[in-house]
Amino acid sequence: MKRDLPSLNALRAFEAAGRLGSFKSAAAELHVTQGAVSQQVRLLEAWLGASLFERRNRRVVLTAAAEAYLAEIGPLFEQLAQATARYGLSKAVPRTLSVNAPATFALRWLVPRLAGFRAAHVDIDVNVETSNEPLEALKEGYDVIIRGGPDTFYGYSMKPFLSEERLPVCSPALLQRVPLRTPADLHRHTMLHTSSLPRLWPDWLTKANVPGLRPNAVVTFDHFYLTLQGAIDGIGVAMGPTALVADDLAAGRLVMPFEGPRLPSRVYCTYIPEAKPADEVVTLFCAWLQGQGHLAQRDASA
């Protein structure tokens, strides 16, 4: 029996654009140009004899009929992919997972652990982009977004996976040259600041009962990872987040001259777009993050 069906490429372009709400994001997922997605959608609209999207400035919105159509054909693509994989017809095309994370977190925590994830899941390519922009300012299309929290954002599910505290850290060589026995001894040291986090040192000094302390010198960086690198290189003392300096502490590149006081900090959380259908790769990656976070907390309390 002959089936009267539109082009599969046109259906794929429509499904991706409708699911992601963006021709640009659909193009990135399908590894084609944005113009190719637009052309395939126009072909499908011509075949159906109906408009599928309303163009609103830089966004595209499904028409009511297209939304109902997508609800029916969307699950069919997932079933097709699962059936193909189940019967060995897939030639192991790697799935690309797109992750957006703050730069310092990515550099000092995520990237050093990512080789372990890749070794266990060779069929998953991970694309990591760094940004400190708030969630609502990000472009569309990320599978997993990592930010501080816990916060609630419309259209996203959130789950914490790693907590931390902040306290002074420095290189062991610096500590040997100029010992730090009490917080008051910081007056002989250089304090390393980050311009975007101006309250870290004042808040800690207040909690340490030396609110008016003046250091020997101050060096300010515009990125937090530069501040931490300055501490590793012996320039001065930085306020270190325990999760992000754990590897440096374990390797002896940094030391904590004081056990406290400790400043509380926001928790690292995953934010997953609810507009995307359930995805086992995203679930797998988030479970891996949870496991790595648990290991980090266990090591910190050991």
From TrEMBL:
Per UniProt, the keywords (alphabetical) are: DNA-binding, Transcription, Transcription regulation
HTH lysR-type domain residues are 6-63
Q: Please name one Pfam family that this protein belongs to.
A: HTH_1
According to the lineage, what is the superkingdom? Bacteria
The Gene Ontology biological process annotation of the record reads: DNA-templated transcription
Q: Which GO terms describe its molecular function?
A: DNA-binding transcription factor activity; sequence-specific DNA binding
The answer to whether UniProt assigns keyword Transcription to this entry is yes
What is stated as this protein's family in its record? Belongs to the LysR transcriptional regulatory family.
What protein name applies here? LysR family transcriptional regulator
